[in-house]
Amino acid sequence: MSLLTLDHMKTDIGQYAVLHDVSLEVPEGGVFVLLGRNGAGKTTTLRSIMGLWKPSPGTVRFDGTDLTGLHTADIARRGIAYVPENMGIFGNLTVEENLILATDKGRFDQTRLKRITTLFPALERFWTKQAWSLSGGQKQMLSVARAIVEPRRLILIDEPTKGLAPAIVAAMAEAFTEISREATLLLVEQNFHFARSIGRDMAVIDDGRVVHSSSMADFAADKPLQDRLLGLS
Ligand SMILES: Nc1ncnc2c1ncn2[C@@H]1O[C@H](COP(=O)(O)OP(=O)(O)OP(=O)(O)O)[C@@H](O)[C@H]1O
Question: Which residue numbers delimit the ABC transporter domain (predicted)?
Fold first, then answer.
């Protein structure tokens, strides 16, 4: 059984029909990558899963339970974390305070904290610094760290490599591969090189519809298909 199933999801934003027909099966474990051109509907798909937009009709099933219509907080409590494109961190709070706020009970599980600082050593170095003073890559690390400060089964991450230097992207790839040993990652990504280096499964959204879904290996081997769906050359 898939961990997450989107079944013919359609989402309107105000008067605009943005998602027309999004169906996806995300298996448990590993990294699933959602690709597609700008404005295709990838962010709207993540927001619809989190209940930030209300899909109708269509269903979102997570671990066998229908999430459709639940409040975002209830969806999060079931074990889904969301790292939005703007990262959702608090610039005037320290790294420590940003992480504490993401815990369920206002205190760290020391084993998890150790794991986070091992994955992202920069966060330990800048522990007492305000988040605004971090580099772009460090901010992105903090935003991902907030998502894993409690155990989660599914983590939705929107464009984690946007604007990052190649060395940071490589560090992200390693961290995501490690995180995907304990949680399923659903990534929206524009950087196809990064996506293919970590993705096990993938789908392409175009104009609010899933137009392709396969293993990443199959998609990566099909240049004409990449060119047609993503405009890569
Ligand atoms: N709040 C909104 N009001 C109206 N239209 C919106 C809103 N948010 C998104 N849209 C429109 O919905 C479509 C899909 O947007 P979405 O952000 O989901 O695309 P995306 O695939 O994530 O693209 P990008 O890579 O540019 O972020 C776009 O045409 C966008 O203009």
Answer: 3-232
Cis before 57 (ω within 30): yes
Q: Kindly state the greatest CA–CA separation across the chain.
A: 51
**pLDDT one-digit tens code per residue, 105-144:** 999 999 999 999 999 999 999 999 999 999 999 999 999 9
Q: What is the CA radius of gyration of the chain?
A: 17
- ipTM higher than the 0.90 cut: yes
Regarding the beta carbon of 15 and ligand 1, being less than 6 Å apart is answered: no
Convert the pLDDT of each residue in 6-36 to its tens digit.
Answer: 999 999 999 999 999 999 999 999 999 999 9
Quote the domain boundaries for residue 50.
1-79+153-233
Closest by CA to 189, choosing from 56, 46, 51, 70, is: 46
| Mutate which of 6, 21, 22, 43 for ligand 1 pocket (most atoms within 8 A of beta carbon) | 43
Instruction: Note whether 145 and 92 are same-domain residues.
Output: yes
**Residues 92 and 206 placed together within one structural domain of the fold:** no
Q: Which of 117, 151, 185 is the last residue of a domain?
A: 151
CA of 206 to the centre of ligand 1 (A): 12
